[in-house]
Specification:
273 residues, mainly beta, Porin, 16-stranded antiparallel barrel, 1 helix
């Protein structure tokens, strides 16, 4: 098993949503309150771990990860993301979006500063739910090789039940297969489901519009990798008055490996505009 993935998976146990009081609506009109997530902070990790800024229409204009390890300017056309441009000295990649004829994200192309497409992220859907996401990368004259696939199953309420991940053997490393299972959802507002597909410092953060993996917050998460049970986490939440989480605490029990039988506590703190 690729052991380097395990700390990353645990460290990113944490999408995006939007907290800004709306203008008073005209008489007879109903409005939906936007939740504008500002920061997610995780002790002992670069702070803030995630940060977002918005325009007057509550659309994300900047997204940052790991204390600006990556920092994106987000561009739109007709309120749909067209590009996310990484704006740091060491990396100025562009993530360019293509949509299908139903308006859902079909492909995101990663383009480097030399205007070379070196990576694709492709999406398959079952109705409005994301069914599969596949990543590939440019490999010399060979073309593009798939290096990561996520497949999703859902509960009847629309919350994700399992995320099955496959990474084929690359550079003499072994193939990696895992299943992450979520149980016991609450009925509160989820704001961090984007992190379920973000591969931390190994890959770019990207944002999805119109598709949610989690509407609510799971109270239990389990991971198995290459047929071995790795951990189980029991979550508890502290909520704001508008049902958004202000704190997420995890009681993590390792089930195998050098830490088998040991417990660790994880914490995530959420702030809003």
């Amino acid at each position: 098993m690729r052991s380097s993935y395990i700390p990353l998976i645990i460290g990113s146990i944490l999408f995006l949503s939007c907290k800004k009081p709306p203008e008073p609506p005209p008489a007879g009109h109903n409005t939906v309150k936007h939740v504008l997530l500002k920061d997610i902070t995780i002790p002992n990790l670069p702070s803030p771990y995630y940060h977002f800024q918005y325009n007057a229409d509550s659309l994300i204009t900047k997204a940052a990860f790991s204390s600006d390890f990556t920092l994106y300017d987000v561009f739109y056309s007709a309120n749909r993301i067209t590009e996310m441009r990484n704006n740091i000295f060491a990396n100025q990649d562009t993530l360019r979006y293509t949509y299908d004829n139903t308006g859902k994200v079909a492909v995101i192309r990663f383009i480097n500063s030399n205007n070379v497409v070196y990576r694709h992220v492709s999406f398959l859907y079952d109705g409005n739910q994301v069914k599969e996401i596949e990543w590939d990368h440019k490999e010399g004259s060979i073309g593009f090789l798939m290096d990561r696939t996520l497949r999703f199953s859902y509960y009847s309420d629309g919350n994700v039940k399992t995320i099955t991940e496959r990474r084929p053997a690359i550079d003499n490393g072994p193939e990696y297969n895992s299943v992450k299972t979520f149980e016991a959802y609450d009925d509160m507002v989820n704001v961090d489901d984007f992190s379920l597909i973000h591969d931390g410092i190994h890959d770019h953060l990207f944002l999805l519009q119109g598709s949610r993996l989690q509407k609510n917050n799971p109270k239990k998460e389990m991971l198995s990798a290459n047929g071995v049970n790795i951990y189980i986490i029991d979550y508890t939440y502290t909520y704001n008055n508008d049902n958004t989480p202000s704190k997420k605490t995890g009681d993590l029990l390792y089930l195998s490996g050098q830490y088998a039988g040991q417990r660790f506590q994880t914490n995530s703190f959420f702030t809003y505009y």
